[in-house]
Predict the structure.
Amino acid sequence: MAMAKIIPTFLLRLIALGATVSATVVMVTSHDSTTVLNLKFVAKYTNSPTFKYFALANAVASGYGLTTIFLPCKTSLWRLLLVLDLVILCLLNSSISAALAIGYVGKKGNTHAGWLPICGEVPNFCDHVNWALISGFVAAVVYFLLVLYSLHNIVNLLAGGKG
Amino acid sequence: MAMAKIIPTFLLRLIALGATVSATVVMVTSHDSTTVLNLKFVAKYTNSPTFKYFALANAVASGYGLTTIFLPCKTSLWRLLLVLDLVILCLLNSSISAALAIGYVGKKGNTHAGWLPICGEVPNFCDHVNWALISGFVAAVVYFLLVLYSLHNIVNLLAGGKG
């Protein structure tokens, strides 16, 4: 593959790696506590299976990003890479959507189900979750672009014959 | 494209269409009510923005599925179809993950946040949501297979020269 194709891929992978690492770190370090009626209430990401899943998904994506960023562009690997990029995209997409749904209930509550919002009590925790979600979203968008870019390259190869 | 490639695609699209339509219908018809302390409590999908998003995403995927199922396999359209399949996959994946996260809280609650489970009160509603999630999951898996199958065909075309 030409140099002109390696550089954008490398840059995209670098941004994605940064985003997934920061999403993981920001989620894992989210911590806040409040005292309601002499009862100490600690908010951390392990309180919700969804946030644990989010941290795990972003950690897996970080590991994958670190492994692939310096891979040479061999033809025998790009098929596998394309499929794995797609899997990581699905994983990140799913973890962000789930965490966003829970984060929304945490912020707004749900009067129908009687679930009260908790962000007023633990604003630092919610801030952390917010930033983690933004980082994760950036990572997912970058992986989407990576998959599209790989598809674009394949189609170009097709159109231009075997390059 | 050869007949051997059209039939699996058609079958996959048919299954995906059936799954998204049933996910939409089952979610939209989910309804249950209970009386707690003389207070009537109605559970329906519009109570949660996440479930509304799930129904909308599956309705969009159904519309897309209905449009594409009878499309002839023209070379000018398959690139667009591949990208749109990918977008629908992301949409379904995201809606299922979000609905699953909320459904999990509905079933198990979250003691840390003080959110009580509601499935004991409105079991019919939870059953409906369960089945809608299963249908949506089937649809997402089928779209994943569709994207992989399209990629496989493209790579085969590449390997075998311009077919």
Remarks:
- The beta strands of chain B are 31-36, 39-44.
- The radius of gyration of chain B is 19 Å.
- Residues 3-159 of chain B form one domain.
